[in-house]
Amino acid sequence: MDRKHGEVSEMELEKNRKATLVPTAGVKFEDQVKVLRAYAVLGAKRDDGAHYKEVMRVTRLARTQISGLNSFLVMLGLLSSPKRGQYKPTGAVTTFSSKSPGEEDFTMLREEISHSPLFRITEQFFLIHGSGPRGDFVSYLMEEAASKEPARADSAIEWLVRVDLLRQDEQGVLSLSTGGCMVEHRN
Asked: Which of 4, 19, 43, 67 has the CA that lies 20 to 30 A from 55?
């Protein structure tokens, strides 16, 4: 960053974009959902959302886990950050979280995630390659995210499968969902 002018270099922007394509290491998918639910419960009725420390307290996850996960959830379009340390859920997240834990309808989050950088690169991959083994896409996503941890890529893919943007068959072959594939030209 050019500290004198407060500018961020293209390289720094690219590094930050890549880092958020996959969630923080060591946070199970179920815990990611729990964090999202916590923001919905604690911050939905506040103009500035909930502070990450409140979410840390109720989810019992570490600051580093919450911090990295916040960046991922913002990238997905599920949270916004109106001010430093504060995160506000979208209306769809609030509705999604109104269901009992384990009874959520993940397709409620589909629209938000379909506009995310994660889905854009996913869509490009599958429009070029067609369907393919999950392992191939995990490798591609790890490269795009500059990550060496397959579990992080797997977790990001799980979001896409749960919201029905990707389908996975019994053999582990992934393809774009035909139930509402968002195939359209984006800028």
From this structure: 19
Q: 89 and 168: one domain?
A: no
Per-run averaged pLDDT (10 residues), the chain, 187 residues? 40 49 90 95 84 94 91 94 91 91 92 95 94 94 91 95 95 84 41
Q: Which H or E run contains 126?
A: helix 117-129
Q: Which of 172, 84, 178, 183 is nearest to 132 (CA)?
A: 172
Contact 120, 80 (CB under 8 A): no
Would residue 143 count as lying in a domain? yes
User: Which residues make Cβ contacts (< 8 Å) with residue 89, sequence separation at least 6?
Assistant: 36, 39, 40, 43, 44, 49, 78, 79, 97
* 88 and 148 co-located in one domain: no
Grouping H, G, I as helix, E, B as strand and the rest as coil, residue 70 is helix
Kind plus residue range of the DSSP H or E element containing 180? none
> Alpha carbon 110 to chain centroid distance?
11
pLDDT of residue 186: 38
CA triple 36-42-46, angle to 5 deg: 115
